[in-house]
Amino acid sequence: MLEITLQGVLWAVFMTAPATPYPVTYTATNPGGTVLGYSQTAGWMSADQCYGNCRTLPGQPVSLLQGELTLEVLAGEDVTIRRDGVPVAWFYRFFGGVPVFSVAPED
Predict the structure, then answer these.
(1) For residue 107, what are the contacts with CB-CB under 8 A and spacing of at least 6?
(2) What CA–CA distance (Å, rounded) separates 91 from 102?
(3) Which strand (E) or helix (H) includes residue 87?
(4) How many CA atoms does the CB half-sphere of 20 hold within 13 Å?
(5) pLDDT tens, 39-60?
(6) Residue 40 DSSP one-character state
(7) What residues contact 34, with CB distance under 8 A and at least 6 apart?
(8) Are 10 and 72 in contact (CB under 8 A)?
(9) Would you state the pLDDT for residue 52?
(10) Is 60 exceeded by the pLDDT of residue 9?
(11) CA dist., res. 81 & res. 77, Å (int)
């Protein structure tokens, strides 16, 4: 299960994924068609720049977000985080434009 922490006045988002025994692929998408891939050595980048290297290292937790984005920004972009193609976290606006997030239940 992803661990998501919101900190500070601006609600900076810190997201850590647990270690897995095998490499996995994390992507971030939005309805506008943007697709980012996560590289454990380079961070988030355009998926077409990954060249097959956007995979995690086995046995190591992954810091997907380290406070560089706020809940407001992620919800405004309607971002979905996927692990191996399966949605694991969603950032969106609720009624009245309130920024919220949801995390998929544990497997």
Answers:
(1) none
(2) 7
(3) strand 86-93
(4) 16
(5) 888 889 999 998 888 999 999 9
(6) T
(7) 28, 77
(8) yes
(9) 81
(10) no
(11) 12
Rounded to an integer, what distance in angstroms lies between the CA atom of residue 52 and that of residue 32? 23
CB count within 10 Å of CB 98 equals 10
The pair of structure tokens assigned to 26 is 């994390």
For the ranges 9-18, 51-60, 66-75, the lowest mean pLDDT is seen at 9-18
Length of the chain: 107
Q: How many other C-beta atoms are found inside a 10 Å radius of the C-beta of residue 92?
A: 17
Which of these, 85, 13, 23, lies nearest to 60 by C-alpha position?
A: 23
Tokens of 3: 């661990």
Strands 86-93 and 26-29: unpaired
